[in-house]
Design brief:
344 residues; alpha+beta; Diaminopimelate Epimerase, Chain A, domain 1; 18-stranded mixed sheet; 18 strands; globular
C-alpha cells in the first residue's frame, strides 16, 4: 500500500472515494467524497449542471481504467423534495440516467448502514429523491444490519402500445414504450430471429441498436409529467406474446448499447406498468423477472393505480439486495494523458 507521505508527494488533480456494491450482478459505485459541488435549485437543474460542467468527473469514476463499459453509480446531492431523506444523481459509463433501479436498491441499504436514516426493526423506510421522482425503499433491518430492499417506484405511465416500425435488416417490428423512470422500448426478441439464451450478446445489442434508431426516427417521445423525463434509454427484450408470458419471465435489457448486468429495475417498472395497462396483471400479483444471461432476478408487482397529472400510471414494487464489494480511493494525476476512456 502506498504510504500517505508518498501520496502527498503526488501531483494530484482529484481524489475520489467510493463504496462499491453489486445488485443482481450490476455494479453500483456510490461516491462518498471528492465529487465537485453540483449546483442547481432542483434535482433536474443539478442533472443539467452535471452534464454541462462535470462530465469529466463522471467519466473519471465510471469509465476505464477505473470503471468499465457497464459501470453504474450514484452521487448524493442536496435534496429539494422535503419528503426525501436523501437525493441522488445516477451516473454510468454511458452518461446520466433519470432512474437506476439496481443502484437505488443498493442506496437503500447504504443509507441505513451509513446512518443517513436510522435503522428501525423490522423495516426501515428510506425516501430517495431521484431525477424521475420520489421513490421509497423498504429496507429489511434485523439485529442492527440492513438487508434486502423492496423498492416502491414513482408513478410509471405507459407511453404508447402496439406500434410498428420498419427496422433495417429485420423488417416490420411491433413494440411498446413505457416509463419506469426511464423510457424503454418493449419488444419480443423472436421478431428478430434471436433467442434470449442462445443468441450472442453482440447480436442482441445490434438488434437493439437498430430498433432504437428506427423508433427514435419514427416516434416523438413525451412524458405526461415533464418532457425532461422522456429520454429513451434502451430496449427491453422478452420472448413470446405479452398475454401468455408466465409468472417467471426471461428478459434482457440493452441500456444505451450495453447489456444491463442486472434484470434492470427501471425496465421492470415500465414492464409492469405495461402489463397492468393491458389488463394482464392484477394489483399485488407477483412476477419474477430473470436476466437471461446471468440468471439473477428481481420480483415485482403493481402496488396501486395513480395519475401523472391527468394520465393513468401505477406505482410498482421490485425487490432485491445490494452487496458490498469494496471501498476505493481513486487518484488522477495532473499529467495523466488518459484520465478516462472507453473502447466500445
Amino acid at each position: 500500500m502506498m504510504s500517505l507521505q508518498r501520496i502527498n508527494q503526488l501531483n494530484l488533480s482529484m481524489v475520489v472515494k467510493t463504496t462499491d456494491m453489486q445488485v443482481g450482478g450490476a455494479a453500483a459505485r456510490i461516491i462518498q467524497s471528492g465529487y465537485p459541488d453540483i449546483i442547481g435549485d432542483t434535482i433536474l437543474d443539478k442533472l443539467q449542471y452535471s452534464q454541462d460542467n462535470l462530465d469529466h468527473v463522471r467519466r473519471l469514476v465510471m469509465e476505464e481504467p477505473r470503471g468499465h463499459n457497464e459501470m453504474h453509480g450514484a452521487v448524493l446531492v442536496e435534496k429539494d423534495d422535503k419528503q426525501a431523506d436523501m437525493a441522488v444523481l445516477f451516473l454510468s459509463s454511458s452518461g446520466y440516467t433519470r432512474m437506476c433501479g439496481h443502484a437505488t436498491i443498493a442506496l437503500g441499504r447504504y443509507a441505513v448502514d451509513h446512518g443517513i436514516v436510522k435503522g428501525v426493526s423490522p423495516e426501515t423506510i428510506v425516501k430517495i429523491q431521484c431525477p424521475c421522482g420520489l421513490v421509497t425503499a423498504h429496507v429489511e433491518y434485523q439485529d442492527g444490519k440492513a438487508g434486502a430492499v423492496k423498492l416502491e417506484s414513482m408513478p410509471c405511465p405507459v407511453i404508447a402500445t402496439d406500434l410498428t416500425v420498419n427496422v433495417v435488416d429485420y423488417g416490420e417490428v411491433q413494440y411498446h414504450i413505457s416509463s419506469g423512470g426511464n423510457h424503454y422500448i418493449y419488444t419480443d426478441i423472436k421478431q428478430f430471429g434471436l433467442d434470449l439464451h442462445s443468441s450472442s450478446s453482440n447480436d442482441i445489442k445490434m438488434a437493439a441498436y437498430k430498433l432504437k434508431k428506427a423508433v427514435e426516427a419514427a416516434t416523438k417521445l413525451s412524458h405526461p409529467g415533464d418532457d425532461r423525463l422522456s429520454q429513451l434509454s434502451g430496449v427491453f427484450f422478452y420472448s413470446g406474446s405479452l398475454d401468455s408470458l408466465p409468472d417467471i419471465i426471461d428478459e434482457l435489457c440493452i441500456y444505451k448499447n450495453t447489456v444491463c448486468r442486472s434484470p434492470c429495475g427501471s425496465g421492470i417498472n415500465g414492464f409492469l406498468a405495461l402489463f397492468h395497462h393491458k389488463g394482464l396483471i392484477k394489483e399485488g400479483e407477483v412476477k419474477r423477472f430473470v436476466h437471461s444471461k446471468n440468471h439473477s432476478y428481481f420480483d415485482g408487482k403493481v402496488v396501486k393505480q395513480v395519475k401523472v397529472k391527468d394520465s393513468p400510471a401505477v406505482i410498482v414494487e421490485i425487490s432485491g439486495k445490494g452487496y458490498y464489494t469494496g471501498e476505493c480511493t481513486f487518484y488522477c494525476e495532473q499529467d495523466d494523458p488518459r484520465p478516462s476512456f472507453l473502447i466500445k
